[in-house]
Specification:
The protein has one domain: Rossmann fold (3-Layer(aba) Sandwich), CATH 3.40.50. About 45% of the residues lie in helices and about 20% in strands. The chain is built from 11 helices and 7 strands. It has a 7-stranded mixed beta sheet with strand order 3-2-1-4-5-7-6. The N terminus is likely disordered.
Amino acid sequence: MTFDIEQTVKKGYEQYSPGQITAIKSRYENARKFAIDIFGNRKIERWLDIGPNKSSGPEILSQLETKLTIVDIQADYLKNGLDGKPKITGAMMDGCALGFPNETFDVITSLEVVEHMDSEKQKQILAEAGRVLKEDGLLIISTPNKVASGKRAMSPDHKNELSPDELRKSLDEAGFEIKKELGQWFFNESLFHQLFRQARQNPLAVYIYYHLLPWQLRKQVRDITLISQKDVEIRPANENETPRITYMVCQKKRDDELL
């Protein structure tokens, strides 16, 4: 049983449920909060958002007194992020080859981006983030947790989802120190979640979900599963919880830490 992955993904992004949109906004709102808390009285001069999701992310970040730049390799995503927001600048650009000088930005956000790349590209985007980030800057990154997703990726267009251990290792090798390790949407080992994961790994169930369910019903199913995963709060996992989204706040290692 096969289906057009590109069209499936396109429809999925066009049909975000209210719960998904709320979760996206929460990731950006928390990024803004963490940056303000860590910078304190220091001014955040420049902020780079790699791969803006819909338009809610840049809109939230643009409320800060900072020069916000967004980059994406897809014109429609970039357009959504820029339309009606004169304070934001943007460019069609690959996050793995950023056209900015070294140490340009105080903060970089890359939320739900690296899973769309293979392992080599993931190394490149983290290396580029480290290059254009100031020495005392902040990298805030989130990505689906492979442990929670199970044998099937969270979305058909995800090339390489990472476990928290794999993300930690990648960040360490790229020269980053993790300041906060958090999550969003939390699984426990209830019967509902076991059945949900089994359904996600069943090709027939996946086909029915993407191709036979009306999009209105599909949105309702998404929000029911999100509600079952508790809230959209970005927080540490409690005992016996597995975050579906890994969310990390990082800074570049100091020279003495690299010795």
